[in-house]
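Each lists sequence, tokenised fold; shown next:
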Amino acid sequence: MIEKNNLKIELIQPRGFCFGVCHALNILDQLTIRPLFVFHEIVHNKQVVSKYRKQGIQFVETLDEIPPQSQVVISAHGAGKNIYDELEKKHCSIIDATCPFVKKVHTAAKRLESQGAMVLIIGKKGHAEVVGIQGQVKQSIVVSSPEEVDALPDFNQIGCVMQTTLSLAKVQIILNKLKEKYSNLIVPPKHTMCQATTERQQAVQEAAKRCSTILVVGDTHSSNSKELVLVAQQAGCTAYLIETSQDIDNLNLSGTIGITASASAPEEIVQEIYQKLLQQN
């Protein structure tokens, strides 16, 4: 922790790029062929995506934007089986940058389906990762809150998986309610939460005991960025989501400031914010 004038600044550990993000970006860095298409943003961070756009890489949201016989990268969030099937029909070369931990969720969902179970996905409706999990099975239901559990019907067999980037506490509340309702609920032997996400959230919980404010470096479209802000706030700390160093200009910061970064946020932005705070005080 660095102290200068009226500020104490702590760089929270661990923070920043997780294994899955590093895995996906390493794949992109090794691909020199152009044109190169990425289905969805490679990770949810504007600065990262902008860097690769400047290198001529094209990020698309629909398959219609991809010409036949193209080189196509699947983003770290993964995609449904239908996306792979359609790309193969277009004779595209597929480079899969799906996070290995998300792949484990896909495997768990397909295993539940093979056992004849309805697949429940604890996650945020419409999130790219959740849409990809849904696309791995024929039938699924996304549950985003404990209240939604009450409206679920009975099932002969039922199992659940989780979006990897949610708050572990939030998932546990929903999971407990599902277990109360369904005595036959099948849960994978190991929950499908990302360990890196959990470790970053736990680090923020601990830092909230020491800090008056926590700055979370991340993107407004990033699920794990928003969860880090929520974790800090629930721990009784003021928290802000910061995309770039410019975002701190209008903040009246004092006391002990903790800085963390979501799993898709570059470390250089953390350092820019850190240096700016040092120069201002």
About this structure: The two ends are 15 Å apart (CA to CA). The first helix runs from residue 19 to 30. The first strand starts at residue 2 and ends at 4. Residues 130 and 163 are 6 Å apart (CA to CA).
